[in-house]
């Protein structure tokens, strides 16, 4: 009575050698199914290794959001500084105009008082 095992021919082979034999048989099988010049039924899919660390994906997104918020806040602060400078310039112009108009008003008051004096003198002479 003989006892047959499925891997009877590979009893004396080490584990690494067994894998090599299996890979070689798979390669021969692929060659027989897909002769040269024809397209394979299932094109080989390249699996890209996941190089990201699972904990760093959220961290990168956090830093991108932080940088975006900082850029927007910098733009807003620059706009506020620009408006402050413009408002200061407008206030300087208004104060200069008021000062100039104040001088003009003082001169008009003096002229008005001189006219009133002249009219009072003329009125007194006519009476």
Describe the protein in words.
- 71% of the residues lie in helices and 0% in strands.
- With 127 residues, the chain is mainly α.
Oligomer class: single chain
Name the helicity range: over 70%
Unreliably modeled segments: 1-8
Distance between the termini: 165 Å
Outline, from the CA principal axes?
A: rod-shaped
Mean pLDDT level: 78
Largest β-sheet summary = none
As a whole number of angstroms, the C-alpha radius of gyration is 49 Å
Structural class designation:
mainly alpha
% residues in beta strands: under 5%
Number of helices: 2
What is the total tally of β strands?
A: 0
Order of SSEs: HH
Q: What's the structural blueprint in terms of helices and strands?
A:
Blueprint: H1 15-33, H2 56-126
Summarize the structure.
The chain is mainly α and 127 residues long. The chain has two helices and no strands.
Looking at this protein, list some descriptive labels.
mainly alpha; 127 residues; disordered N terminus; rod-shaped
């Amino acid at each position: 009575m003989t006892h047959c095992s499925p891997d009877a021919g590979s009893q004396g082979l080490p584990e690494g050698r067994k894998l090599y034999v299996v890979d070689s048989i798979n390669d021969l099988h692929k060659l027989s199914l897909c002769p040269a010049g024809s397209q394979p039924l299932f094109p080989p899919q390249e699996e890209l290794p996941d190089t990201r660390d699972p904990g760093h994906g959220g961290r990168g997104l956090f830093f991108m959001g932080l940088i975006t918020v900082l850029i927007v806040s910098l733009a807003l602060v620059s706009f506020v500084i620009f408006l402050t400078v413009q408002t200061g310039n407008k206030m300087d112009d208004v104060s200069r105009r008021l000062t100039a108009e104040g001088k003009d008003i003082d001169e008009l008051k003096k002229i008005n008082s001189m006219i009133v004096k002249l009219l009072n003198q003329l009125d007194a002479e006519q009476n």
